[in-house]
Amino acid sequence: MGQVKMPKVGRPPQGTAPRDTAEQLKQSALTLLARKGYSAVTIKDIAHEANLTTAMIYYHFKDKTDLVRATIEYAIENALQHFSKVSKNTDHPAALIHDWLQMHVSLQSDISKLLKLIVDYRHSDMRTPYIDAAIRHFYDTERELVAACIRRGQRVQVFKTGDPDTVSDLISTFLDGAMLRSFLVDDFDIKASIEMFEATLWTSLGFDGRWD
Amino acid sequence: MGQVKMPKVGRPPQGTAPRDTAEQLKQSALTLLARKGYSAVTIKDIAHEANLTTAMIYYHFKDKTDLVRATIEYAIENALQHFSKVSKNTDHPAALIHDWLQMHVSLQSDISKLLKLIVDYRHSDMRTPYIDAAIRHFYDTERELVAACIRRGQRVQVFKTGDPDTVSDLISTFLDGAMLRSFLVDDFDIKASIEMFEATLWTSLGFDGRWD
DNA sequence: GTCTATAAAAGGATAGAC
DNA sequence: GTCTATCCTTTTATAGAC
Prior knowledge:
Oligomer: homodimer
Largest sheet of chain A: none
């Protein structure tokens, strides 16, 4: 519609802004897919969200499902990047779990989007072994990160009780619930909810609250 | 395709089987909508699942969204019926919470379907005040049932700690997570997961495990 | 790399016979 | 109440100009 288009000169924009057209399309797809799901989102919607036309999608991707698969990979990679940061910042086991929970508060938007994408994908007929493996890897990383931390906490006597793997699943399941509720309930206070859970968790693990 | 159709004689089938065509359609829609979501399910799919043709959907319902709205109502009514049973069977506050959790294990299939329907509906553009109100009523009932039970438990000194409303939300959020995981993870052991949560909950509420 | 225009397919909805 | 046949709209996907 007669939009003026700036010619691209020099390096593409830096920072969080999308770097190229393909990534721009994946980012747009991610937003829309999380909001409405695969079938409800048309390639026109995605192209429009990215200020492009449908033909551009077929220039960069084979078809609609190819774009969606690329988008899932993209979202998983992003999430895993954030995961790896958490384990770097802190040493105390309880502090690491705390950071883990807090990350879900601050990245709630991204993580709940990914979760919705995965639910959608799992019930679709476009599954591939490769994407299935990527999703499994994502869950395994999550599970192991927390379980390892609890194991370490028990070795140094910070945590007294609980099977590490079981507790890790308990935490993940609760966090999934919190992500879901943030989608579902308008005025859901995810921060308060996760903090309440944290308190419950410390009681259950026999952690006395001494952070040093 | 030349299917032989038995003439309907006498009373329709009794028990859990669908009683009439409209209910049969709602039941079929529920199954498919929970599996694939509104846009991914075609009226042809639904008609086929019910062993009928698309025209029958338009005989019983105004259009596709009308059928979906009726299906959500239907699923909520079913769930609320089950809810009301729980509060009748037991008296001890801890036993009631226990039954509440166990109900989510045994009715996991129905409840997770409803949950998926609601997520789908909330992000659709077919929302009506009436269905919105029905969903809110569903959540309020859930919340109040558990909160009232905890309040009573504190009055009779069975539970020692925790704000009833906050704890009620904690329970609901975890259960939502468990429902989601049962959709998401193939070999998810919902029974074990909820039992683990129950143990955590008793610790957190200061319940000593004396059921008398 | 990006657009316009259009072909091809799928899905929602209706008319009319039985 | 139920079916067959069909219309109309939406959506996916491609061809070809710039």
